[in-house]
Design goal:
With 446 residues, the chain is an alpha/beta fold. It has 21 helices and 15 strands.
Length: 446
């Protein structure tokens, strides 16, 4: 589950956060959709008894997973609905929450959007079904996204630890060593563009998801939430560490002015105009499916760091959650546990290109020793699995991150457009986010 494209995010209808924020004020008082005496035993009983549930998902593996589940539990009918990708689905979900009906039993939600629905008191606390016992099965970073205090609001499905995807053919042609630090990356960008002004080390015209991913990797923690108390500091040490690097690329004209996920972007990845990408571990599938002409050109390496020590962050990824509107929460929880914690389901997910969040799958010999024909026979999962272990801890998203991303282009995007200091754009973004959060009932920077 990758982040939506910048264009897709900006074109999507912004979720109605006013209702979500007002509900957040009473979130701690919200009740559960099932008895607190429920346990994993009730899940097993519900699965055997059967019933009907609805599952919203846009993942390409969902259909095969649902069919396998129904074969294992023939008394259960799962109605699979693709309610749209990202914001399209979130808008429908928020509308159902506001209306008090129409939400699915189980729903796919990206990590960055989960806090919004947690605080709007829309999701079932799964700790009552013994889900706390599953913590050790997941990477720390993905598990951290689905918990709040003692509550568990979902199970991680995939993850997106970042890596450096680079065009080895281009790097070799121009004698560019694979950078291990960001200083080396800047030097590589300068060398490449000087040798051939039509080529760039990367493309970036301004993307909220990429920016937060890079701030996270630099050790920044600009967003902190405690209930409805929110702190925003987009000038913290980690943020400024990233801008000190990226400003050199932006202001030096070393970034291709090609919007990510556009037709021109894919074309540039295919012909060598863009020589590297820093994105999540789901990117190999995108390259194979959308840039087939470059098969054999690309390779994967650990993402550069500031001091040479391993440090990654997450780009994309998400979980599934049970909504409080579910009329059969134990059955929904049982399906969710099978979906994101059973070997049968996870095999389908990884065999069809998903990048898992579960430690067992990330460290299995078959997964680690997979040789990618597209990547010249490289065992790419060895790099990507290690990246999942090196995620910098402590990151939080805003409880209105969906809205925050939607106004990124109006603030930080202007710095990109003008090739000016990114800190100015980030300061403008922060001012807008503080004002908006306070207007929606949060206490921001107070």
């Amino acid at each position: 589950m990758k982040h939506l494209s910048r264009a897709g995010r900006r074109a999507a209808v912004v979720v109605a956060l006013g209702a979500a924020a007002s509900l957040a004020l009473a979130a701690c008082a919200g009740g559960s959709g099932a008895s607190s005496s429920s346990s994993s035993d009730s899940i097993d009983a519900a699965l055997q008894k059967g019933g009907e549930i609805t599952y919203w998902s846009w993942t390409p593996q969902a259909d095969a997973q649902v069919k396998a589940f129904e074969a294992a539990y023939p008394n259960v009918k799962v109605n699979l609905v693709n309610a749209g990708t990202g914001n399209d689905e979130y808008t429908k979900l928020q509308n159902a929450i506001t209306a008090g009906s129409g939400a699915p039993d189980v729903v796919q939600i990206e990590y960055y959007a989960l806090p919004q629905f947690e605080l709007s008191n829309a999701l079932l606390d799964l700790s009552q079904y013994g889900f706390g016992d599953l913590q050790q099965d997941y990477t720390a970073s993905t598990w951290g996204h689905v918990v709040s205090g003692d509550s568990i609001y979902g199970l991680p499905q995939d993850s997106g630890p970042i890596a450096l995807f680079y065009n080895k053919t281009v790097f070799d042609k121009y004698g560019i060593p694979v950078p291990t630090t960001w200083d080396q990356y800047i030097a590589a960008a300068q060398k490449l563009h000087a040798a051939d002004p039509t080529k760039y080390i990367a493309a970036d015209t301004g993307d909220a998801g990429f920016t937060t991913t890079m701030i996270w990797q630099a050790g920044g923690q600009p967003f902190k939430t405690d209930g409805t108390n929110v702190t925003i500091n987009l000038q913290d040490a980690g943020t400024k560490k990233w801008t000190s690097t990226w400003n050199q690329l932006l202001q030096g004209g070393l970034l291709a002015p090609i919007p990510a996920w556009s037709d021109d972007w894919y074309k540039a990845l295919g012909n060598g105009t863009i020589a590297s990408i820093v994105l999540g571990a789901w990117m190999p599938g995108v390259l194979q499916g959308s840039v087939p002409q470059a098969s054999g050109d690309w390779a994967v390496a650990p993402v550069p760091t500031y001091d040479g020590k391993p440090a990654t962050s997450e780009s994309g990824g998400g979980a599934q959650a049970v909504t409080k509107q579910s009329q059969n929460p134990a059955l929904a929880a049982g399906f969710l546990k099978w979906l994101n914690n059973s070997d049968a389901s996870l095999k389908i997910f990884t065999d069809q290109g998903g990048f898992p969040s579960t430690k067992a799958q990330l460290t299995s010999p078959d997964f680690l020793n997979y040789q990618s024909t597209y990547f010249g026979g490289q065992k790419i999962n060895q790099v990507l699995s290690q990246a999942a272990q090196d995620v910098v801890p402590g990151w939080q998203y805003l409880p209105y991150q969906v809205y925050a991303n939607s106004i990124f282009g109006d603030t930080v995007g202007q710095s990109y457009a003008n090739k000016s200091d990114l800190n100015q754009g980030l300061t403008s973004w922060q001012a807008s986010l503080v004002q908006y959060g306070n207007s929606q009932g949060f206490s921001v920077n107070k």
